Amino acid sequence: MKMEIKIMKNILAANQNKAEEIKKLLSQKKILMINLIGAPGAGKTTLLEQTILRLKDRFRMAVIEGDIATDIDARRLQPLGIPIVQINTDGACHLESTTILKAFDEFNLADLDLVFVENVGNLVCPAEFDIGEYAKIAISSVTEGEDKPLKYPLLFREAKALLLSKTDLMPYTDFDKTGFYKNVKNINAELPVFEISCKKNIGMELWINWLTQITARIKK
Amino acid sequence: MKMEIKIMKNILAANQNKAEEIKKLLSQKKILMINLIGAPGAGKTTLLEQTILRLKDRFRMAVIEGDIATDIDARRLQPLGIPIVQINTDGACHLESTTILKAFDEFNLADLDLVFVENVGNLVCPAEFDIGEYAKIAISSVTEGEDKPLKYPLLFREAKALLLSKTDLMPYTDFDKTGFYKNVKNINAELPVFEISCKKNIGMELWINWLTQITARIKK
Fold it and tell me: Is residue A61 within 8 Å of residue A115, measured between CB atoms?
């Protein structure tokens, strides 16, 4: 099944916070919404691709793709055959709740269990905004270095899980894993960390289990 | 020589654009100011370290480090023995001209040829602000993928040079170099690109030559 991609513009309206409305709607429909946040190139789209592939027999899913420009990411996910809305922010550095609510018009919410939002590639601004998600999920690649939790503390504080991505590149970098865990603990001692390599198919089960459990709990 | 690091707070004052004042000052003092912009973990600090090492017999340099939190980067550069000001933005996603002008108070401008500003790790917001720099320099690592120029067009349009960093990791990624150059050309056909690996000491001469030439031109 090849789905058409709907492309929308971001609506920046700081005074119109629709997060509570979204939360209520998701709660009524028993849908889990994940807000995936990471730097450009951290591996957000690959993670979504590999996650959706693993969950598609179990849950009904949809994706909201946030990018400043292009529909590259939406087109990458199109072969998965699930509903996708691509939001182009035209320069804005994050997604806002008003746009998310608008994107819902493109979905049949009664047919969904799990909505993934891939935010604009940015470790800073998206962490500041409540878009009505159940959880912000942080993704940081080993090539970014072990100091990111200290240098961009808000996201690591707000996140309900952290994916350490591209672990297959670890041998070729100076990444200090002990230091990384120390830095994570310093900012958010309770944060679960999943080490993954989507490329080499390493560590995905624990993440998938975690996500399956919380989605299934919402459905009950 | 070990220099003391001065830590400052960012002053966000959108209505007080000091960029023109800074440009005038730099022009009077014949100082070249570079505004280095890239995603978290693109290799900005390592590039500065390796660049300053190579130029320290030729030019008198200083660094303004921008980070949301911590003085990790300033401390990394401290052994170079040049004046460093660390700005902590406390959450703000970019540096502004008012803060840059304030940071100048910590330098003796008469003793400088070249000032490097390492902006907050962010491919989006810093590109929007004129801080009075001579040039914005973009840095993007091969691990971020070849689509970044299309997805974050403003920086690649504004930059006077682009560093493609971490080329030593190319064999371990799916980075499409032909596609990357096509994407760069699409956004900014005139943009000079330097492929570098600071870790493996590859490709640094061309970048250093380029920087030396424009700095020497300013000094004339």
Answer: yes
Determine contact, residues B173/A168, Cβ cutoff 8 Å.
no
What single-letter amino acid sits at A170? M
Length of chain B counted residue by residue = 220
The dihedrals phi and psi of B207, each to the nearest 5 degrees, come to -65, -45
Residue A174 near chain B (CB below 8 Å): yes
Query: Could you give the dihedral angle defined by the CA atoms of residues B139, B142, B146 and B149, in that order, rounded to the nearest 10 degrees?
Result: -10
Q: Tell me what percent of chain B is helix, strand and coil, each rounded to the nearest 5.
A: 40, 20, 35
d(CA B162, CA B144): 14
Of A179, A198, A182, A60, give the one whose Cα is nearest residue A139.
Answer: A198
**How far is it, in rounded angstroms, from Cα A144 to Cα A166?**
10
Top residue of B123, B146, B148, B154 to mutate, by most chain A CBs within 10 Å, is: B123
Amino acid at B208: I
Asked if B16 and B27 touch (Cβ cutoff 8 Å), the reply is no
Q: Verify whether the Cβ–Cβ distance B121 to A174 is below 8 Å.
A: no
- pLDDT (tens digit per residue) in B67-118: 999 999 999 999 999 999 999 999 999 999 999 999 999 999 999 999 999 9
Q: What is the ipTM of this complex?
A: 0.93
